[in-house]
TrEMBL record:
InterPro entries: Vps55/LEPROT
Top-rank taxon, per record: Eukaryota
Transmembrane segments: 6-23, 30-48, 68-88, 100-120
Protein name: Leptin receptor gene-related protein
Organism: Oryzias melastigma (Marine medaka)
Family recorded in the similarity comment: Belongs to the OB-RGRP/VPS55 family.
Biological process (GO), any one: negative regulation of growth hormone receptor signaling pathway
Chief location category: membrane
Entry's Gene Ontology cellular component terms: endosome membrane; Golgi membrane
Subcellular location: Endosome membrane; Golgi apparatus membrane
Length: 130
């Protein structure tokens, strides 16, 4: 039952994060959809960690593969926070939209981190129970 509560909580926080992102784009005073390009970063951010966990042999020690995956993931997350700032500095979007997108980024990336904490702990978890 705890897994279902965690899944519902992660779904809710993901919906809140996407709501902030869409508010930063669709409100009448902002009206520009360029910040939606951060969706690419949302999709790309967990991929290096998935690959490193698949290729890594041990879960308790650090490996070069896992450290490289963390480095690439950090670069993707920093890029997702940097894109709205660059768009706001170039007056492509307004600063209010930038703030909403950055809030959405924080919520979404914390949701992704929560997913790895809850469901990525070990091999004893099975998706077949869903």
């Amino acid at each position: 039952m705890a897994g279902i509560k965690a899944l519902v909580g992660l779904s809710f926080s993901g919906a809140i994060g996407l709501t902030f992102l869409l508010l930063g784009c669709a409100l009448e005073q902002y009206g520009v959809y360029w910040p939606l390009f951060v969706l690419i970063f949302y999709v790309l951010s967990p991929i290096p960690t998935f690959i490193s966990r698949r290729l890594s042999d041990s879960t308790e020690s650090s490996s070069a593969c896992r450290e490289l995956a963390y480095f690439i993931t950090t670069g993707i997350v920093v890029s997702a926070f940097g894109l709205p700032i660059i768009l706001a500095r170039k007056n492509t979007i307004q600063w209010g939209a930038c703030g909403l997108v950055m809030t959405g980024n924080a919520v979404i990336f914390l949701t992704i981190l929560g997913f790895f904490v809850v469901f990525g702990g070990g091999d004893d978890f099975s998706w077949e129970q869903w």
